[in-house]
Amino acid sequence: MADTNLATDRVIGKARVTVNGEVLRTEKGVDLTLAGDEIKEIEGDYEAGFTTEFKSAELTCKIMVKPGDGLQRFVGMAGATVVVAFDTGLRYVLSEARQNNRPKISGKDGGAVELKFTAQRCEEMLA
Fold this sequence. Notes:
mainly beta; 127 residues; Phage_Mu_GpM_tail_tub; 10 strands; 0% helix; two-stranded antiparallel ribbon; Phage tail tube protein
């Protein structure tokens, strides 16, 4: 008999992003790269090794801008708490996050504005 509980087969499909408690109206396609050591291979003539370099977490999203939305608050934003909640119940918290892009407003493609947050700490919260 087939398992009727498909919840265990669910994969990430949507994400909700909040910044300091404010829910952002994001377009599809939120990208999160976790913080941690990035390995760089070192190759020699007869041996190989590696070094590591710590990389901050990066969250990139595009927000939909509607009448009355202010974007100036994102310029130079630092010390923010950013939460990414996926529809599978998986959540990540970026502590002391910074918003690295100066928001670029364009009249094309629905006026979406890209934001890029980085943080040294990115904690996984399992549901």
